[in-house]
Amino acid sequence: MRGLFVGRFQPFHNGHMKAVEWILGRCDELVIAVGSTQRSFNRMEVFTAGERIEMMRRALKARKLDGRCIIIPVSDINNNALWVSHVNSLCPEFDVVFSNNPLVKLLFSEVGKKVVEVPLFDRKSCDGSHIRKLMLSGAKWKELVPKEVAEFIIQKRGIERLRSISKEDKYGVVA
Ligand code: NAD
């Protein structure tokens, strides 16, 4: 059986990793759709699609899960009613969708696709916006993402990027 897991992964954190492991306990293979590929270099979406794929691949490889995962970049489209067709046109076939995102669940359910929620792991801390806040404030964040992801973010000077794009000019916050 092949599953689909959609996310923005800004960044790919321990909650995402646990979700992937949980799904792979139930599926042979997993298509991971990296969403919103057109967005990067802003406070909410810091990393490019390529960077998110890279961080995810490194974390999966370290856990010997890369051979069971197919990572596909998926841009957003300006029409929710057509989004499932858009995803289907880009991804290999899958039998079941794993998501807790209400819109993702609704759109796939509408076309009769089986949708399964994944258990939330340490949701208070393992949350993209919380982790980005910690990064901005200089607080500890590395333990909330897989080690390989932390190394990659540091290598790409991701914290410096986040701070630069969060600076205010005289009109307020830039991004
Ligand atoms: P996300 O990175 O916030 O989350 C991805 C998944 O991981 C979600 O199912 C989430 O519930 C789960 N998760 C998060 N934290 C977790 C934790 N601590 N433990 C376990 N699981 C956890 O991404 P998202 O916002 O759900 O991504 C949806 C993507 O689909 C976006 O890119 C969005 O733009 C795209 N989308 C696009 C359209 C369109 O283009 N019209 C429509 C619908 C969705």
Automatic annotation (TrEMBL):
Residues 4-133 form the Cytidyltransferase-like domain. SUPFAM superfamilies: Nucleotidylyl transferase. GO terms for cellular component: cytoplasm. One of its GO terms (molecular function) is ATP binding. The keyword Heme does not apply. Pathway: Cofactor biosynthesis; NAD(+) biosynthesis; NAD(+) from nicotinamide D-ribonucleotide: step 1/1. Keywords: ATP-binding, Cytoplasm, NAD, Nucleotide-binding, Nucleotidyltransferase, Pyridine nucleotide biosynthesis, Transferase. It comes from the Archaea. It is found in: Cytoplasm. It catalyses: beta-nicotinamide D-ribonucleotide + ATP + H(+) = diphosphate + NAD(+). GO terms for biological process: NAD+ biosynthetic process. Its EC number is 2.7.7.1. It is an enzyme of class 2 (transferase). Belongs to the archaeal NMN adenylyltransferase family. NCBIfam families: arch_NMN_Atrans, cyt_tran_rel, PRK01153.1. This is Nicotinamide-nucleotide adenylyltransferase.
